[in-house]
UniProtKB/TrEMBL annotation, chain A:
Pathway: Carbohydrate degradation; glycolysis; D-glyceraldehyde 3-phosphate and glycerone phosphate from D-glucose: step 4/4. It comes from Myotis brandtii. One of its GO terms (biological process) is glycolytic process. Belongs to the class I fructose-bisphosphate aldolase family. This is Fructose-bisphosphate aldolase.
Automatic annotation (TrEMBL), chain B:
This is Fructose-bisphosphate aldolase. The lineage of its organism: Eukaryota, Metazoa, Chordata, Craniata, Vertebrata. It is found in: Cytoplasm, Cytoskeleton, Microtubule organizing center, Centrosome, Centriolar satellite. It catalyses: beta-D-fructose 1-phosphate = D-glyceraldehyde + dihydroxyacetone phosphate; beta-D-fructose 1,6-bisphosphate = D-glyceraldehyde 3-phosphate + dihydroxyacetone phosphate. GO terms for molecular function: fructose-1-phosphate aldolase activity; fructose-bisphosphate aldolase activity. Its EC number is 4.1.2.13. One of its GO terms (cellular component) is centriolar satellite. Its main location: cytoplasm. It comes from the Eukaryota. Homotetramer. Interacts with BBS1, BBS2, BBS4 and BBS7. Forms a ternary complex with G6PD and TP53; this interaction is direct. It is an enzyme of class 4 (lyase). PANTHER family: FRUCTOSE-BISPHOSPHATE ALDOLASE. Pfam families: Glycolytic (PF00274). Catalyzes the aldol cleavage of fructose 1,6-biphosphate to form two triosephosphates dihydroxyacetone phosphate and D-glyceraldehyde 3-phosphate in glycolysis as well as the reverse stereospecific aldol addition reaction in gluconeogenesis. In fructolysis, metabolizes fructose 1-phosphate derived from the phosphorylation of dietary fructose by fructokinase into dihydroxyacetone phosphate and D-glyceraldehyde.
Length: 364, 364
């Protein structure tokens, strides 16, 4: 092995590490507001709103005009490219509004999935071409972190070894390039909940995928202290007939992370996937009450689970903006509590259920 | 990916996990008394004692018949095959003496190095043939953990990708087989200190090696909660002219572990390599005082660093038994204190130098 050629200077490392820690400071998580134009089309059509650039601007304004209450529960906001350059009704750039609240600005940098030939419908993610130049520009324009989403799915023969390897590798290349440009990479290897597999199967697959991701990050000399992980929680497939409690989801999730995510990673910001707002909060809360030792922050990077009620309350009407913003603030505060294990949700079993599963730990 | 085929039942996992935790509970560590016949020859020659089976038996008897309070410092003892079947002068089996003190009995399982052709004098480890049957027999004979030492070296083009990959794979095969037979595998990927490289280079190599080891363990479906790691501390090569303090060694070591060892691993028991008894203790103490998060127990698995004074005190004479036992107990107690960060000796730098190196963290 040749001598090491340091990828980053001490100052670069410090900057990245500081940014990451700011985003996942205690009680804080991320608002994923980076829906692409296509994804926004789906969201807006569900509330009967036309998918125009102005409507997308108005909607993001609803979220970003939240008052100082969000300062203590939102550490970062992920933007889509278009939104990074949009302004509010008073001509103030959204980036500045967010930064002025002490919240870190992030940017989605991947360019969507492409098929892997010879597999059972599996994909990798594109976006590496010219990524360094794009990151440098985004950094100038106020972004301090980025996000890149890879997608894996569980079925009879998937995820295949190729899909795991290829997606882990592309995530590592992305992460390396981000760090060279002073941007903290959020690494998102999402395993979709589609299917009828049980909790155990999801846990097994999640462990394999995360082990491959961290091996790839090591191979590509990525500085773990300057990254964040955005994984799926470990849950059964949508079509699985067995129901599991938040405590069971929590135990499986934390066990999988403990076996694969090095303690150097400062924070794990879960995606909400198809979970409802309340489910996403209850699960995050249970995760933060799990009796196993957890050396990283465990918080949220939610899209739908922070915005569903707000979107519904807004319905494209300016008059509804205030009420819609309130809905968003409400979910943000709830998730801020859940990120500390302090959310007393409806029907929460509390200590007993969490305790009873500790002994069953070894079954995971 | 095919369906998961569980390698271990819940009961098997529970047993392994409990054994591992027992070994490193409350600051306890391991006495590595598994010197092969040849290695014992080296030790005995230095004190002018003939390398006979009886002499080896006598020395081990003195160590194992020490006062019961030793079990507060020593959680496990690694034996060589011969020693497992030896008895004290009253005819009592050594392994029963140890068990009655509440000490877990372990066995060296590897069968030494073998060269890797086409490399710069690098090696892999033999011992997989018939390993399962050997493990089953040892388990019947009272053993609850195994140890297997892989060796990597730093030099021109070393460790090569092949050496890292091959040794990690052999370690994972050994670990898998151990667990199938109820033995906790101690995984030892030693990066030897030979050479003039600096501490930073050792850290870089150690990180690469450990990342490969944990990827291999994951690939081989090894249950991390039922394993222990026995790594080198991160130090400069023996011939390096630059000197480092225990606090620097500690920061480099914990940083490397932090970036590669999942929190699920219950304990990390350092080897002492060529360190003096006092250096091994001071370094372990500094490691336990290192301000980085440390989700695993950080303890010792020392051979020479627990026995050097004892050997010198013995000199092959039965009359020196008491002095020998005192010398051994002194090191055992000292290292147990170090494993809790509570070791004080004359010349220890204390809190100040630990503090001053914290901000230098980012250079690691």
């Amino acid at each position: 092995m040749p001598h090491s050629y340091p990828a980053l200077s001490a100052e670069q490392k410090k900057e990245l590490s500081d940014i990451a820690l700011r985003i996942v400071a205690p009680g804080k998580g991320i608002l994923a507001a980076d829906e692409s134009v296509g994804s926004m089309a789906k969201r807006l059509s569900q509330i009967g709103v036309e998918n125009t650039e102005e409507n997308r601007r108005l909607y993001r304004q609803v979220l970003f005009s939240a008052d100082d209450r969000v300062k203590k529960c939102i550490g970062g906001v992920i933007f889509f490219h278009e939104t990074l350059y949009q302004k509010d009704d008073n001509g103030v750039p959204f980036v500045r509004t967010i930064q002025d609240k002490g919240i870190v600005v992030g940017i989605k940098v991947d360019k969507g999935v492409v098929p892997l030939a010879g597999t059972d419908g599996e994909t990798t993610t594109q976006g590496l071409d010219g990524l360094s130049e794009r990151c440098a520009q985004y950094k100038k324009d106020g972004a301090d972190f980025a996000k890149w989403r890879c997608v894996l799915k569980i079925s009879e023969r998937t995820p295949s070894a190729l899909a795991i390897l290829e997606n882990a590798n592309v995530l590592a290349r992305y992460a390396s390039i981000c760090q060279q440009n002073g941007i903290v990479p959020i690494v998102e290897p999402e395993i979709l909940p589609d299917g009828d597999h049980d909790l155990k199967r999801c846990q097994y697959v999640t462990e394999k995928v995360l082990a491959a991701v961290y091996k790839a990050l090591s191979d590509h000399h990525v500085y773990l202290e300057g990254t964040l992980l955005k994984p799926n929680m470990v849950t059964p497939g949508h079509a699985c007939p067995i129901k599991y409690s938040p405590e069971e989801v929590a135990m499986a999730t934390v066990t999988a992370l403990r076996r694969t995510v090095p303690p150097a990673v400062p924070g794990v910001t879960f995606l909400s996937g198809g979970q409802s707002e309340e489910e996403a909060s209850l699960n995050l809360n249970a995760i933060n009450r799990c009796p196993l030792p957890r050396p990283w922050a465990l918080t949220f990077s939610y899209g739908r689970a922070l915005q569903a009620s707000a979107l519904n309350a807004w319905r494209g009407q300016r008059d509804n903006a205030g009420a819609a913003t309130e809905e968003f603030i409400k979910r943000a505060e709830v998730n801020g509590l859940a990120a500390q294990g302090k959310y007393e949700g409806s029907g929460d079993d509390g200590g007993a259920a969490a305790q009873s599963l500790y002994v069953a730990n070894h079954a995971y | 990916m095919a369906h998961k085929f569980p390698a271990l039942t819940a009961d098997q996992k529970k047993e392994l996990s409990e054994i591992a935790q027992r070994i490193v509970a409350n600051g306890k560590g391991i006495l590595a008394a598994d010197e092969s016949v040849g290695t014992m020859g080296n030790r005995l020659q230095r004190i002018n004692v003939e390398n006979t089976e009886e002499n080896r038996r006598q020395f081990r008897e003195i160590l194992f018949t020490v006062d019961n309070s030793v079990s507060q410092s020593i959680g496990g003892v690694i034996l060589f095959h011969e020693t497992l079947y030896q008895k004290d002068s009253q005819g009592k089996l050594f392994r029963n003496i140890l068990k009655e003190k509440g000490i877990v009995v372990g066995i060296k399982l590897d069968q030494g190095t073998a060269p890797l052709a086409g490399t710069n004098k690098e090696t892999t480890i033999q011992g997989l043939d018939g390993l399962s049957q050997r493990c089953a027999q040892y388990k019947k004979d009272g053993v609850d953990f195994g140890k297997w030492r892989a060796v990597l070296r730093i030099d021109n083009q070393c460790p090569s990708a092949l050496a890292i990959q091959e040794n990690a794979n052999a370690l994972a095969r050994y670990a898998s087989i151990c667990q199938q037979n109820g033995l906790v595998p101690i995984v030892e990927p030693e990066v030897i200190p030979d050479g003039d490289h600096d501490m930073e280079h050792c850290q870089y190599v150690t990180e690469k090696v450990l990342a490969a080891v944990y990827k291999a363990l994951n690939d081989h479906h090894v249950y991390l909660e039922g394993t222990l790691l026995k790594p080198n501390m991160v130090t400069a090569g023996h011939a390096c002219t630059k000197k480092y303090t225990p606090e620097q060694v500690a920061m480099a070591t914990v940083t490397a572990l932090h970036r590669t060892v999942p929190a699920a691993v219950p304990g990390i028991c350092f080897l002492s390599g060529g360190m003096s008894e006092e250096d091994a203790t001071l370094n372990l103490n500094a490691i336990n005082l290192c301000p980085l998060p440390k989700p695993w127990k950080l303890s010792f698995s020392y051979g020479r660093a627990l026995q050097a004074s004892a050997l010198a005190a013995w000199g092959g004479k039965a009359a020196n038994k008491k002095a020998t036992q005192e010398a051994f107990m002194k090191r055992a107690v000292a290292n147990c204190q170090a494993a809790k960060g509570k070791y004080t000796s004359m010349g220890s730098s204390g809190a100040a130098s630990t503090q001053s190196l914290f901000t230098a963290n980012y250079t690691y």
